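Sorry to interrupt, but I need a hand with the structure work. I would like you to pick a protein and set down its sequence and fold. Please put the record directly below this note.
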Amino acid sequence: MALKNLLFSTYLTLVLLLTACSPEPHLIGVKPKTSQEQLKQTPKKVRILIATTRASSDEEGVFYSSERADQLNFATVNVSIPIAHQTGRVELPSPPPPDPEKHLVLGDAERLKGSDQFLQEVRKELQVRQRGSRTALLFIHGYNTNMTEAVARFAQLVEDSGFRGVPILFSWPSNRRTIDYVSDINSAAISRDALAEFAILMSSINIEGVDILAHSMGNFLAMETFRTMALSGGFDRLNRLQHIVLASPDIDIELFKRQLSVISPKQREKMVVLISRDDKALRISQRISGGTPRVGAIDPEELAPLGVTVVDLTEVNDTNSANHAKFANSPEIVQILGERLAESDTLSTSTTTKGLVLQKAGGIVEIFKPPS
């Protein structure tokens, strides 16, 4: 047993060191390999509205750093989608600069002057959309993520899922260093009040509905905020929440059960938990967290009695070997996710879609490819 633990510790150390040595470049506002006139001709663009607890930065490409801010900051970034974009891919250059024909270009970055200007921008975005699409999708990214990656991933999700509402990113100050796992947990915890403040802020908007999508450690931040708001009687007071999608939650299962215990059954029905029992990132997280199972890699049978819908993605192939972001990396899953956000009953019955079988039994939806 001692030898086994030593081997695992050595393996974990190598993983941490290797991933820590190769951070993704900072690209927000970095000029692409083309003229502005050519960039304007890029057919697809996604405008991301941002609320963040990160501190602003004047360093090229960074925009907002991993430092913790004392207050909520607000911004916007336009993302140009390359013609050669493939569903499930986040095409970022390494090294910069980006080529608009091959890469996402994160430009027109603007810092907004407080919450009033942010709300004005949200209202403008809602006004240019047709009825039925005057909704918002709030994305809360996971651990080990810088602002560039958070914006790029969200733009990819919006494009690939076909979401037509207003995309809003809530970005917390992840360090973008694998070895800073504990620091990231603390940064997520520190951001809880700011996320609750943001939810109250959004309640002043006349909007048709709000969907929430959290990934990995972002689920810890989301669930802690939900718990706080539920205890104060302020959880979805205006009944505008449509879906809460918890993708690969990096949360201790016992903590998750306690977080859910103060949330009403009606609200739990809106929660969709995406799990994958082959999630390698969560296996490591479980090991360094004392061995307690993480929600995103647990047996779905343990989650089903909690009143949430569990979607088992174990049999779905991922373009990334860690199997930690199947909701975004798998073309079929990201498109099904888009349908789920558009139609509340997408996963209510067994069906076949996008070449995959969705088989529902109780509160569990198993997704797999049919035998050939």
Summary: The domain at 2-368 is CATH 3.40.50.1820 (Rossmann fold). The chain is about 35% helix and 25% strand. Confidence is low (pLDDT under 50) at residues 13-21.
